[in-house]
C-alpha cells in the first residue's frame, strides 16, 4: 500500500494510542475529527451552533453596511447559506442568528447600530405572488433543500448513496413538519412496484386513508397493484363479506374510482405534484410552503422588470402603510413636534395623506392622469391604485406603461 505525504489516519471508536502506533509504519500523519474537506465539515455534529460559525461569519462579512448598496438584494440574501443548507439540518439558533443578520442588512443597520424594522418579517419573506417581498425564509430554504434528498431516496433507493443518507440524516428529516405524501404520488406503469393501499397513486391520498373501513377488511394489506388489477378485473380477497350498508357503500365507491384504471407497460415511478413535469424543484416547494404558512394580501403588487427595484419596494411598503410618515414615526417612539402635515397643515401626515389626500399630492395625480389622457380619479389608497391599473384597458403593453408611470409618481 502506497502512502504519500498527504495521507492522514483517523481513529473512530478506537483508542488514540492504538491509532498513533500505526502512524510510523504506514508513513502517514495522525489527524483528529472534525476537519473540513472541500468546504464541508467532516465528523462534526451539525446539531451544534458552533459548527455553523463559517456560515455566520460569511454572512457578517458579506452583509455589512458598506456593501448593502452593491449586493443583489434577493440573490445574496437567499443564497449565501445554500451549500450548508443542502447538506445539514440547521439548528433553530443558527436560523435565528442568520435571519437577524439579514434583517439588519435589509433595513440598513449594522452590528452596533439598529434601525427601524418597518415591515413584519413574515411579509418580507412571503412570495411576491401573495404580496410579500419574496426574500424567502431560511428555515423553509433548509427544509426544501433537505427534502430534495427524500425525493432522491424515493426515485432511486438502490444506490450506495441512498444507504449513506438513510443512515446519516433520515432521523433528522423528521424534525420538519411536512408530509411528503402530500406532494408526491406514483405514476403507474406495470403496477409491480406500487403498494395498492399504502402508496398514493390515484386521488389526493392513499386508498388506506380514503377508504379506512375497506382497508381494515382486507386480509393482506401489503400487496401490489399488479396483484389486484388483472385484465380489467379487481381481485379483493376480503376477510369476511361486507355486511353494513356503510361498508358496502364505501367499497362500491372504491370500485368505481379504480374500475377504469388500466395498468400498462414500463416501470412505476414517483412524480412530484408541485410541478407539471413531475420533477421535484426546490423553489416550487419553497413557494408552496410559504403559501401554506404566510399571510396573503388581497391585492398583491405587480412586479415589473423595467421598473427600478427601489421604486417597486417603496410601493410595496406604501401598500402596507409602512413608510416613514409623521404618524408612523410617532407610533414607533420617534419624537416629533407634531403629526400634522407640514405642507397643508390641515391633516395628520399618514401614508394615504402623503400620497393621495394632501392638496399637493392630489394636484400631481391630476396632472399625471391628464397627461395620460385619463379622467381625474381620486384614489384613497395604494390598493385602489393597484386595482385601477390592473384592470385598465385591454392592451397589456399600455397597461404596463401606466403601471410604471403610477409607480414612479408615487
TrEMBL record:
<dbReference type="Pfam" id="PF13966">
    <property type="entry name" value="zf-RVT"/>
</dbReference>
<feature type="domain" description="Reverse transcriptase zinc-binding">
    <location>
        <begin position="302"/>
        <end position="365"/>
    </location>
</feature>
<keyword id="KW-0472">Membrane</keyword>
<protein>
    <recommendedName>
        <fullName>Reverse transcriptase zinc-binding domain-containing protein</fullName>
    </recommendedName>
</protein>
<feature type="transmembrane region" description="Helical">
    <location>
        <begin position="71"/>
        <end position="95"/>
    </location>
</feature>
<keyword id="KW-1133">Transmembrane helix</keyword>
<keyword id="KW-0812">Transmembrane</keyword>
<dbReference type="InterPro" id="IPR026960">
    <property type="entry name" value="RVT-Znf"/>
</dbReference>
